[in-house]
TrEMBL record:
Catalytic activity: D-glucose 6-phosphate + NADP(+) = 6-phospho-D-glucono-1,5-lactone + NADPH + H(+)
UniProt keyword Protein biosynthesis present: no
EC class (word): oxidoreductase
Sequence positions that bind substrate: 182, 186, 220, 239, 345, 350
Keyword check for Oxidoreductase: yes
Family in the record: Belongs to the glucose-6-phosphate dehydrogenase family.
EC nos: 1.1.1.49
Molecular function, one GO term: glucose-6-phosphate dehydrogenase activity
Positions contributing to NADP(+) binding: 12-19, 46, 89-90, 152
Record-annotated Glucose-6-phosphate dehydrogenase NAD-binding domain positions: 10-191
Primary role: Catalyzes the oxidation of glucose 6-phosphate to 6-phosphogluconolactone.
Ranges where the Glucose-6-phosphate dehydrogenase C-terminal domain occurs: 194-491
Identification of the protein by name: Glucose-6-phosphate 1-dehydrogenase
Organism: Paenibacillus campinasensis
């Protein structure tokens, strides 16, 4: 499905996100015929750049980060002609008025029907004033629709998120706002719905009668890289927990929506977030949530620095680079089923994986067995490997009645491989087509913050429970104890 003729405004056009993700995404959409020919991109940033310099930046970024290479494309010049730059101080209304003139000229030149998509790859503190100045500068008076696409972090807690939301809502309606959680753009995250709702052998079992627990792991091998300034203020709970992890959890736990429409799906997701059992006391936080920070360590024979030695990180920082939690979804379907979630920097593998552990079979038929039966597992591999596998028990070939677990494996990335679209590509395409299914609605964001705030507030008051773990390890032992208390263990990730 082609997106309609649109002008894409990339605010923060000289930044990292634009370079690594957004320009390559636009180019891939173009190469795949998913963009209307009537499109234009205006890069907006403070720095001064000539049109030629900007097009050269775009070329370099695509050449480096896109799976399609412009050097092999004869139509590159034609594509690049759709890109323009505007140097702008976002507090200067006159700059926005000039931008309006530039936009109208481009719309005439490329016959674009006045649809405008504003992508703010900027610090969230600027969302409010950019929105306001877009309105003041007459940028929202085109003949088509206006949409605002914004990046995380959406606030620091519920209060600041609500304030931020109020500011942008003065200018844009909720249905015009597309809040990015790039995990929702990942192929396998979107696939969770299909796996659940299109398979007769999963949905009937998808409840507390058959599922023992769910484990969600978002492991990263990287440290904080050059983002110490931001990260030391945010920490793993805000950086990954409030958004990506809780979003994954809602996809696993939500009820089938009444219709496969954005609003119905989002209604179901928000119900899950509202059903999360809040930790009522600090003791409950302590008993159910573990936080950690990496110290010096090594991986693949390479020495890795401690978090506190990273650039722009406070040398006595108490920020968590890891957390694990036991979460309950208190509704009819999930009562009593623990969801264990964990994420961390400097873990041994880069992986996003969901393991659904089914309840064990009564073993009476095989009582003679030396070993107890392994439970069935459904494993959804989101990132970087994409696929699903199911672990079932079968007779060990050649044996009398010995049973061994075998895996039925479907590797999506093995088949689709390098050509599968990137999350940002899908999300930009969706936003331009007006499909908000995989963007977060305000009530989802607010409910997620309400849950996370309780943990963060306890942590702020009690700082003694930060567990240290060596870089390159699987995090603090305390996170294993969380599961052991319930008679479970983390399944090794692949
Ligand atoms: C971002 C976080 O949202 O997600 C980063 O801010 C993290 O800290 C990144 O590294 C992980 O995304 P992905 O797609 O590489 O798993």
């Amino acid at each position: 499905l082609k997106a309609p003729g649109t002008v894409f405004f990339i605010f923060g056009a000289t930044g990292d996100l634009a370079r690594r993700k957004l320009f390559p995404a636009i180019y891939s959409l173009y190469r795949e015929g998913k963009l209307s020919e009537d499109f234009a991109v205006i890069g907006v940033a403070r720095r001064s750049r000539t049109q030629e310099e900007f097009r050269e930046d775009v070329y370099q970024s695509i050449q480096e980060f896109c799976r399609y290479k412009p050097e092999q494309a004869p139509e590159w010049g034609e594509f690049a002609a759709h890109f323009e730059y505007k140097s702008l101080d976002i507090n200067d209304i006159d700059g926005f008025r000039e931008l309006r003139v530039q936009t109208e000229q481009l719309e005439t030149k490329f016959n674009i029907p006045g649809n405008r998509l504003f992508y703010l790859a900027l610090a969230p503190e600027l969302f409010g004033s950019v929105s306001f100045n877009l309105m003041k500068g007459g940028m929202l008076e085109g003949a088509g629709w206006n949409r605002l696409v914004i990046e995380k972090p959406f606030g620091y807690d519920l209060e600041s998120a609500a304030k931020l939301n109020e500011e942008i809502r003065k200018v844009f309606k909720e249905e015009e706002i597309y809040r990015i959680d790039h995990y929702l753009g990942k192929e396998m995250v979107q696939n969770i719905e299909v796996i659940r709702f299109a398979n007769a052998f999963f949905e009937p079992l998808w409840n507390n009668k058959h599922i023992a627990n769910v484990q969600i792991t978002l492991g990263e091998t990287v440290g904080v890289e050059e983002r110490g300034g931001y990260y030391d203020h945010a920490g793993a709970l805000r950086d990954m927990g409030q958004n990506h992890m809780l979003q994954l959890l809602t996809m696993i736990a939500m009820e089938p929506p009444s219709r496969l429409l954005a609003e119905d799906i989002r209604d179901e997701k928000v119900k899950v977030l509202r059903s999360l059992r809040p930790y009522a006391t600090s003791e409950e936080v302590r008993n159910n949530v573990v936080r950690g920070q990496y110290t010096k360590g090594s991986a693949d024979g390479k020495e890795l620095p401690a978090y506190r030695e990273e650039d722009k990180v406070h040398p006595e920082s108490l920020t968590e680079t890891y957390f694990a939690a036991r979460v309950f979804v208190d509704n009819f379907r999930w009562a009593g089923v623990p969801f264990y979630i964990r994420t961390g920097k400097r873990l041994p593998v880069k992986t996003t994986e969901v393991v659904v552990e089914f309840k064990r079979m009564p073993t009476n038929v095989y009582l003679g067995q030396k070993h107890s039966l392994e439970p069935n597992l459904l494993v959804i591999r989101v990132n970087p490997m994409e696929g699903i596998y199911v672990k079932i028990n079968a007779k060990k070939p050649g044996s009398e009645s010995e049973i061994a677990p075998v895996a039925m494996d479907f590797c999506q990335s093995c088949i689709v491989g390098i050509n599968s679209p990137e999350a940002y590509e899908r999300l930009l395409h969706d936003a331009a087509r007006g499909d908000s299914t995989y963007f977060t609605r305000w009530d989802e964001v607010a409910s997620a913050w309400a849950f996370v705030d309780r943990i963060a507030n306890t942590w702020k008051e009690e700082q003694g429970d930060l567990e240290m773990y060596p870089a390159g390890s699987w995090g603090p032992a305390k996170a294993d104890e969380l599961l052991q208390e319930d008679g479970f263990h983390w399944w090794p990730v692949n």
